[in-house]
Amino acid sequence: MDSDEEVRTRIPFKDRPDWADVKPVPQDDGPCPVAPIAYTEDFSETMDYFRAIYIADERSPRALHLTAEAIQLNPGNYTVWQFRRVVLEALGIDLQEELKFVDRIAGENTKNYQIWLMDITWRNCFKLMGLDSRHHRRWLAEKLGADAVTNELEFTKKIFSQDAKNYHAWSHRQWVLQALGGWEDELAYCQKLLEDDIYNNSAWNQRYFVVTRSPLLGGLAAMRELEVNYTVQAIRASPENESPWRYLRGLYKNDTQSLVEDSQVASVLLDVLTSQNSHVHALSFLLDLLCHGFEPSQELKSAVDVLTPQSCSPDFELTERICSILEHADPMRVKYWNWRKSTVRVQSAECQNTDRLANLRCKNDL
Fold first, then answer.
1. Could you tell me the pTM of the whole model?
2. Which of these is catalytic: 14, 23, 100, 111?
């Protein structure tokens, strides 16, 4: 609401006639502060006047103007944001105008915690104190309802154009979709992001969110075949990219048997392991499948044999040979693969026993 020009030509509050009746309240650091903060004069004065109106619970236009100045000096001050919401509601201010103010502040401070969200621990603390723990932008969107959907989705798109992995913006976008709607074009948006950057793990995460949460798509079971086809193509194009491998696992969440039996999965593993590309993710994936009872084809076994180092013991099982390969192919995690090799037989037995129990429970539920 305040322009940059107004900030540059700031008049001290003590020299403003409309604030002559207010006695500022200085910050109380105690008689002997150990490490006092070197605040600027403008910041100290603004906060002294803010404390005065906060204590007086003054809900006036000048109080709203003061919160804007305080936020520009420190956009991370939760108390100022919370009091601003109180004043906005009391004055009945046009929230579309407030949204423009927040757009500007958020655009300049894209990872500002107080604008975007409040951690659940702090939410509980503020709830106990009787304070509103919602972050400011979400509060505005809730007030505006369906009218805010397009603006909020477009705003997060702008943030992603600057920072494709901004956690706060992704969290807010998911909240908007679930609370206010706007699912219609979200899968296509994820598709566009992945076309621009197939390594964008945030876009992969959002795609999974849409596939599993959208009320328009029918859920994971209905979308699995299409999504597996898409993911397998992404793996073939960039087998060194970990995101589609993880996405593929997610498509079979709580249904390991279907993953083990999917011929497309075996096919893409064979393609990657017989190519000149990176084999780390394919081998790791194959190792986990084997632990769950996957029966590999002779071609897959031969592909692993080709990659197996000569130092590998001939008595090793296929799973142990894979771990030996990964010790060389993935040296950053050599100790992890060594541990997997030493425990893989036990892990396989435990995984298969767990799968059998899960299948029995499913049959009993039917």
1. 0.80
2. 111
Sign of the Cα torsion 180, 186, 189, 193 reads positive
335 part of the active site: no
Q: Which residues, in sequence order, are CB contacts of 290 under 8 Å at separation 6+?
A: 296, 318, 319, 322, 348
The DSSP annotation for 284-326 comes to HHHHHHHHTT----HHHHHHHHHHS-TTS-TT--HHHHHHHHH
Least confident of 74-78, 170-174, 228-232: 74-78
- What gap in Å lies between CA 57 and CA 260, rounded to an integer? 63
| Helix/strand number for the chain, H first, E second | 20, 0
Q: Is residue 112 pLDDT above 70, yes or no?
A: no
pLDDT tens, 55-91? 999 999 999 999 999 999 998 888 999 899 999 999 9
319 in Cβ contact with 348 (< 8 Å)? yes
Euclidean distance between CA atoms 247 and 258, whole angstroms: 15
Give the chain's length.
366
